[in-house]
Amino acid sequence: MPLYRNPTIIDVAQAAGVSKSVVSRVLTGNGQVSAQSRRKVQQAIAKLGYSSNAAAQALALGRTRNIGLLVRRSTAPFYGRLMFNLQEHAARAGYRMIAVTGNLDNASESRALQTLLELRVDGLVIGSGNLPTEEFRVIAANLPTVVVGRPAEGSNADVVRIDAVRQAHEAARVLRANGHHRIGFIQVPDSLSAAPRNRALRSILPEAGFDLTVAEGGYDLHEAVLAVRALLAEAPRPTAIISLSADGAWAALREAEVRGIAVAAELSVLSLDQPDDGYAVTREITSIPQSSGELAAQAWALLSARLENPAREPREVLVFSPVHHGSTVGPAQS
Amino acid sequence: MPLYRNPTIIDVAQAAGVSKSVVSRVLTGNGQVSAQSRRKVQQAIAKLGYSSNAAAQALALGRTRNIGLLVRRSTAPFYGRLMFNLQEHAARAGYRMIAVTGNLDNASESRALQTLLELRVDGLVIGSGNLPTEEFRVIAANLPTVVVGRPAEGSNADVVRIDAVRQAHEAARVLRANGHHRIGFIQVPDSLSAAPRNRALRSILPEAGFDLTVAEGGYDLHEAVLAVRALLAEAPRPTAIISLSADGAWAALREAEVRGIAVAAELSVLSLDQPDDGYAVTREITSIPQSSGELAAQAWALLSARLENPAREPREVLVFSPVHHGSTVGPAQS
DNA sequence: TTGTACGCGTTATCAT
DNA sequence: ATGATAACGCGTACAA
User: Does the structure show a pLDDT above 50 at B60?
Assistant: First the structure.
């Protein structure tokens, strides 16, 4: 059936005129080999184009050096960045990162998860904000698992997520420092990842004395625009808009421009999401970002600690990035 | 070392009180098993939470049912969509899709490719518009390989890409039908994937009698905006802007809005890229799209044909999507 | 320093 | 219908 047989260690051994254990030794670096054997083996490897067989290694070693990443939908910029950043860390540590994506529903995500289990990944990163914890509770009990961006209570998984409360306090501080009072808040659809952030802002901002109007930002730019329009139609108009999604902030800038409202001077815009590349067209958006780089770094730290010590107690790490001062927040109109 | 041992077929066999061959038979569906044995085995599988070991299967069968996808940077929306769509096809055909991403440079992409080889993928999809063909020429000679979105001359790989020439002719047709003559063209940075499309438009539009002004659209929305500004500063101003990137089209709409130029009536905008979700805020962009869904479908068709018959002659498939009539192209001002 | 032999989990072949 | 057994490619004790 196979038109082509990959060269094996045995092929290399024959070509080099040594036994296969010698080849294995130069490959792994374990044990002693004479300089001459090493040279001959290396030449044979290069000549045959030998590439190690991960499946055979996995079987022999009992581990794969694969780590799996599950994302809900690879088309979302956040997941793309997460995949990108995580692969960096994994590669540096000598692990392969294998990414699989669901298809927007829990069933397909479970299947994707099953794929990773069959691949016998040594560690698992769950980047889905929607998959119910129950779906991987049993898995996390036996496999080093870190969940990104959402809680995973009742499971043995490590968690890294945004410090929603601190983020809300920081937002309040920034807006208060600029004398704002009437705030429009664009929230995102509730999910395991979004709910805590929606909740934190909805409770902390009013507690801090702000007059808060809430609008649903939805899943895309189109819905975000509708939310902005609703907020701008309020009377009196909010002096600041705070958005949990980059789309919301972008939509606010756009609508302001269309209506001739001066951003910062007449309407402040604060984003709590990391703006996508290229969003900073006319001006840098003031934000308290949800840094995928930071999340990935912490996720890897947790995962590698767990790989070294599987019995380690699960931890929850909250990441927080300080305000990034752009040019979209200014003093409130008096 | 492993705190946890995954249950094996042997464990299942013991729990079910049968031999491991029986278990293997119910798992694979090959051979006959009594209804009673099947039932007992299925119960044992559920009870133990057995999950097949892909590495052992790969070793025994000589193939993995993995197909690998290499992308240049997972943060680009196009690659996210490609990954998403391709996974759909692969899953339906009983293959796992494993995605790996490079880190913007050829060296990291080669390493990612190496990962896929070690995983002994049965098939390979190269979604990178930049990796030199030479880097995978030898691989494609022995492994079913399809390249998406760019040529791969001199290799044994199948190719699926946009029909750049037909796309250019279609663009010319649309613009001519609306009486346009002065055209601003936003091209994208030359790469193996972009160069043919840049070239087709730069040669075919002037041949068709258009007065073409070219601007470099760059890699992101920011650079696209600069390109649009340059085009709008021309005197006389172009009556239509045609963009190879969705960013360019979006930037054109935005700049027109800011300057009070009526889109369609005073300035037509034609996109040759698939607009990202949510881009159609105020109006539907008229486009001759580069459909990632269509590319993925054709890529899978080529790959599965090659998987069935490895000796098949490599083919090149050109995909073309007809114009999508939005509301951004109108008659030229006379 | 080198070679031999066994085991990893699975499938397929051959007896029974 | 079922059970025993030989591969698959690799790592590693162990013997030489």
Answer: yes
Find the Å distance, CA of residue A176 to C1' of nucleotide D9: 66
d(CA B319, CA B305): 17
The fold for domain A164-287 equals Rossmann fold (3.40.50)
Which pair of tokens denotes residue B265? 């009536």
* Contacts with B59 from chain A: Cβ below 8 Å: 53, 55-56, 59
The whole model's pTM is what?
A: 0.91
| pLDDT band (50, 70, 90) for residue B278 | very low
Pick the CATH number of B9-52 from 1.25.10.10, 1.10.260.40, 3.80.30.30, 3.40.50.150: 1.10.260.40
By Cβ distance, the residue of A98, A251, A258 closest to B98 is A98
Please say if the pLDDT value at position B211 is more than 60. yes
A66-161+292-318 is classed in which CATH architecture?
3-Layer(aba) Sandwich (3.40)
Query: A35: how many CB neighbours lie within 10 A of its CB?
Result: 7
Rounded CA separation A224/A277 (Å):
18
Confidence band (pLDDT; 50, 70, 90) for B132? very high
The alpha carbon of residue B310 is apart from the nearest alpha carbon of chain A, in Å, by 7
* Helices (H) then strands (E): counts for chain B: 12, 11
Out of B79, B118, B279, the one facing A54 most closely (by C-beta) is: B118
pLDDT at B279 over 50: no
Q: Return the domain boundaries, chain A.
A: 9-52, 66-161+292-318, 164-287
- DSSP for B66-131? EEEEEES-TTSHHHHHHHHHHHHHHHHTT-EEEEEE--SSHHHHHHHHHHHHHTT-SEEEE--SSS
Give the bridge partners for A72, in sequence order: none
Q: What is the pLDDT of residue A282?
A: 54
Q: Which residues of chain B are within 8 Å of residue A2 when distances are taken between CB atoms?
A: 62-63
A8 and B CB contact within 8 Å: no
Domains A66-161+292-318 and A164-287 share a fold: yes
